[in-house]
Amino acid sequence: MTELAALSVSAALIGLNNGDISSRDLAHACLAAILEHDPALRCFLAVDPQHALAQADAADARRARGGDLPPLLGLPIAVKDVLAVEGLPATAGSRILAGFQPPYTATAVRRLQQAGAIILGKTNTDEFAMGSSTENSAYFTTRNPWNTERVPGGSSGGSAAAVAARLTPAALGTDTGGSVRQPAAFCGVTGLKPTYGRVSRYGLIAYGSSLDTVGILARGAEDVAALFPHMAGHDPLDSTSASHPVTPIDLTAAESLAGLRVGVPEEYFIAGIQPAVEAAVRAAIDQLQALGAEVRPVSLPHTKYALPVYYLIAPAEASANLARFDGVRYGLRVENEDVIEMFKDTRGAGFGPEVIRRIMLGTYALSAGYYDAYYGQAQKVRTLIAQDFLTAFEQVDVIAAPVAPTTAFPIGGHGDDPLAMYLEDVFTLPANLAGVPGLAFPVGFDPDGLPIGMQLMGRHFEEAILLHAAHAYQQATDWHTHVPTLATP
Ligand code: GLN
Question: Which CATH number does 2-263+278-299+388-487 carry?
């Protein structure tokens, strides 16, 4: 029965559409796999089996009626707990939102529901998506299915681990500085960070509003391609969502990469990168070449500024976004007769140490007298970083690079060293600062058996090209089909 839970999105849709499997059996299998393995892995903050099965039954009934059927009818997915889903709690991994039930559903989720998907539950995340390991979740740390002493990456670690462990065919994540791509790499799954503005942010609990994107984690590029067009596109409820047309992504002709120009940026192959990571990424680039792509060096000269720029802009925006959590409107309140004291006590008790650090850094960077020196300066350098990509994309169609300098690190490995944690993000932050899409997918394993990921970055709105290239790679290789061995409880 739980074998059904191991189906990829594409295989599940074929089975559902030709009547081999029912949505109830599929949802039931996922719920059974969650029941069996989640106590050890801790991917989920909330699961509502009754609600999931009711949605599955409704999907099966709809299919029995026949006629024009929505394309994802009956497909179970999981949702990162920073996206609002009506009927389920939304905590963003924070105590300050304990007990909060949003009265509406995020557009990205609602569109997938309209396309027929059903929601299994909400996945764990670093508090307010601030982190690279899920260790900043106020509730618990998710474990990497490949080695439960290791982090799954973050902040969408619950989603990545759940997909890798075959608890769900796919999951939504968010990527502000790498939070879809890095956990995808650490868990050996495929993860898309779309172009900024491509997917509505309505119903997403905001972190860094000029950087936040909603993405997908699944087994392979074809699975991501099956879901992505159904959640993308302009939304009147998000004024920053782009009106660029969304078309179905057809990967059938993806055997050859002839004509594709792949750029390899020297700035992403730096000292300190784990040798196995570099070797696997270079081998994957060779594979792209063997499939017909033309590989050439490119330069993104301002890459070294991405880390300091991001860690000014993201906390600055976070400090403004998180001002709304004051004990009045949502979740936790620490009572005090003095309203100012109530704000302070609530925020002091409700926010964890990393969130408090970011609010302080961000408030400082935005304060009078420092604004120009920090925030203003960071914005200017951000423009240079974005310009690097535009220049490079005059010569190449995609840029290939490692996702992270290392494979999954041990839980507690970065201890109390926030800088060491921030350094995990060096290769993912630039795409967010530039707003370009990025796709992470597995390209090998390190000597400890931990997955290694590569990312392809592309021009704005050219997600389909990334998916095409990755799909061609995945048809020629089998890294994305490896399954972690889970302990039987
Ligand atoms: N690790 C980065 C941070 O902590 C990115 C997080 C994200 O993409 N949400 O800000």
Answer: 3.90.1300.10
